[in-house]
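Bumping with the actual sequence this time:
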Amino acid sequence: MTRIRRTAVAAVLTLVLPLPVVAAGTALAAPASEHSAAAASDPYGLHPELPRPTGPHAVGREILHLIDTHRQDPWVPSAGPRQLMVSMYYPAQPGTGRPAPYMTVEAARDMIQLKLPGTTIPAEAVSGTRTWARSAARPEHGRSPLVMLSPGFTMPRTELTSLAEDLASRGYVVALVDHTYENSGTTFPDGQTLTCAICDTPPTGGPGAIAESRAKDISFVIDQLTSRHHPGWRYARMIDARRIGMAGHSLGGDAAVTTMAADKRVQAGVNLDGTMFAPVLPTTGLGGRPFLLVSHDQGGGEDPTWTSGWANLDGWKRWLTVSGSNHASFTDVPVLSETLGIPEPPGTTISAERSVQLTRTYVGAFFDLHLRGIPEPVLDGPSAANPEVSFHP
């Protein structure tokens, strides 16, 4: 989240979403090719590693290719039906499956080119990032709440991998969605990597229109995952459709609000540092559903869309600010930056490990409280264990 500027839409997108690196009801689902996703060995010896998940469960991961045959792609109509790639994380049986790659080399190359043009950092250094999930791992028995995750604009879904893995280790099924043509690159099962179609020329309606489109993406994915007759995922039986939450970073956080306003199946939401460009909540609120706002340290400033939106949140709500953080602190970016020698923005004092820890702590506690009914004192107010986190107002 950053303060809104009254400038051209393209300039607003640049300011709000900076990062230092790096047919309805009908779907076709297929695992993405592990061959194209396999990370090549890194000749430069750089091996970023995500922090180990904190929960008691092993983590499985599968990739879905979902096609909405009743909706044309909003950004590239000539592409035909809207196609999405989704990473599913879930509690798994220990010792099953094989190491899950972070991302494809092609997608990593596109991300580096968009974020750090001219850099000598090899794509393999990013694609080879160590994860803790296992591809094709056997699922645990039982049913779990579902959490939808949406990344920031221009960033691939992998930026929220550490959060997805941690939630799965705590017993959640997680659907991490790539919004095609809205990020640096999305690799499909045929090996093609589609790059951003709207990064340089934002659509009519600007960021608000993107958030509204993402809400449709998320609702479609929920449809596929919770369908009783033809679900889009072979392990859909794991999902408890009565308990669904959503979190997102940056524009993905805005999309969490927009999705909840449009889809009452989403019972709890988290906005990680995302300015709320879409009409900020209906005056009727979210029907009493809980919402968590988490902001980076803006030096005493506030995003006016949060200030106005706060009043319309009519259920349980918290607004947290993490001192010493920056816009990307709630993603994997600091972990990658630390290993690859990319400096953090000025004013950043929180370490990569600590930023991941705090994000996992508060997002996990929020969903434990509101999707599982587990009391979480860490959400009651400031804690001596987490002095970086302040509660507002």
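The tokens above came from a reply further down the thread. The longest helix spans residues 206-226.
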